[in-house]
């Protein structure tokens, strides 16, 4: 079976949230073969072949059409509805008493929009025409070809035909939009928002233009479409979606200006670069099936950091890669519920559950490790070969690794096999005996896991001399011919493995850079959680770096100590000493990373020390004029210091804000109250629509870290679990949020574990099982 083209005409009743459709499907079928179309929630009115009605069946989301033709044009009339609650398929996205209609199809929701063969390998071109009220705007993947008047005060917007692409990349948006645009050569680059918000789109527009230019050069293939829309959707389940030529974003992932915090601007740049990388890697060349989801997401993740680092070298963006991608992936991969990067998926529904730290962060980290091993030029050459060979078609993971072999001349497939097909990763124990260094590997786990031996591309520096080698066995001995005076493994933290030193002083003698010092902290914190080192050993590592002056190291210590404090506030008190020591040093620093870390220090200090919160809360009087990097810290201090008196003021301010960036700061502050009923009141704003559906799950891991309100939060969550599941059906987003919340809630409330252990949530069960495993890890150190 081959699908060549869909011609789709849709007549929308915007007010009633319904539409009528007519589509022509140009296809080639084997003699006597039935055409199988996916169609969920749609009413099929008729099917014609060559203008004549033919019989069909429509059961369990599948339409089977009888045809005796080898080459057919199949015409389908159908009707559909726009979802009012869900966030996938075609749905209503409300804002300020109005709404737009938007779509989200990955992985298998195009079938809820039109009848189609909803499978990534069945690429086709799309010719879309939409009939709407004259005062409405319409956006799709391609530019508008023509607009003409229709009856009853309507118009028809006809779009140019797309290149061959997968169904999950199709997009349609209907409503009132504002736009700003720029041009790169013959490509129109456009930012679209709902009315009143496009002023914050200029930063993303500039980023997009520069990133497309970077990718044009890096990939050696120009961007293929005549335009690229970047669309801020007021309700959006994910961060963004790479629809070809019409990328959709959560508003906070696209909108920023000169008054935004550094974290906001950095986040926007990262997400824009990620989705634009998909325009080549995922859209131009697409995986054959969801088994290779990692191929899309890992590469887009890795390339987004490469692009932003090229644009803003002073941002130290590879440090962000370690904290945001590698660290989370290593934690997730330490659990028994992990999976290999390349994992078999039976159904698209299963694919929803592997949009996780493994498919994104671990895969990207392995790409970084392989680039470090084969060299940047060879890596780029392999990428260009891959894209050129498979453009407008589909490919597999093995095709990708083979292309890197062509580019590098090295046995990449053999080296990388362990990292792609095996779950987990190694811990390397380092022992020095006279002039010899002994390395021993074992699988690192926080709980349990099948023992494994990995092929590890080792990087090390001994007495100032760097070298690399492949460690293929459980142990290896290196004779350096002289006394070992300094030693470090995993240079620049490019390897996906942990290191335990029998004498950590040798590491400090090696003059480690900030990435390597961060890595030592991350390793020993996780070894503490795994029970491989005592708290005293971990504390000694922290104290060795307590006075460090690098933002990355300081923020890592802050995050680790806050995590321990939130598990047991009376046992883990080192954070007070650390905050008192470090916070004053960052007051006057002006660079952007320093301002961000200063805000983090202030917020954490207010959280753990009521007296400090009371002093900082005074600054709330001038909130609007504060440095945006410290606003959330001040609002948090205000909530903690003044409780009920602060609630009304924060809520009033939350309701008056137009942009989500500011709303989320205030919302996070309102989750930090010491009074449980105030936190529950805040959560319940999600039941009335005052907290967007997209954010109702996002805040669960945030509020779970509040040790003063966990019982009340748990009762709220238990009460509204079914409601939350209905909002996020088909996305697995609730599962990921619960994974971040359950462990901290369960540390304080025993019935959390009992509740989730005794129930099955088939669509998010992997995340629930993961959360329960993390809970048991945290209880061990509590």
From TrEMBL:
Needed co-factor(s): Zn(2+)
Record keywords, A-Z: Aminopeptidase, Hydrolase, Metal-binding, Metalloprotease, Protease, Zinc
Tagged with keyword Repressor: no
Any one GO MF annotation of this record: zinc ion binding
GO cellular component: cytoplasm; extracellular space; membrane
Entry EC number(s): 3.4.11.-
Keyword Transmembrane helix: no
Annotated site, Transition state stabilizer, chain positions: 360
InterPro entries on file: Aminopeptidase_N-like_N, Aminopeptidase_N-like_N_sf, ERAP1-like_C_dom, M1_APN-typ, Peptidase_M1, Peptidase_M1_aminopeptidases, Peptidase_M1_dom, Peptidase_M4/M1_CTD_sf
Protein's UniProt name: Aminopeptidase
Organism: Stygiolobus azoricus
Source species taxonomy: Archaea, Thermoproteota, Thermoprotei, Sulfolobales, Sulfolobaceae
